[in-house]
Amino acid sequence: MIEELYGNYEFQSALDVGGLLSSETKMFFFFKFVYAELEENHKILKDENISMLPCVYYENNYDKYIVLEYNFLVQSMGRFIDKYSLGDAEMFLDLFSAVPYDKKPNGTQIM
Question: CA 48 to CA 73: how far, in whole Å?
Answer without folding.
Answer: 22
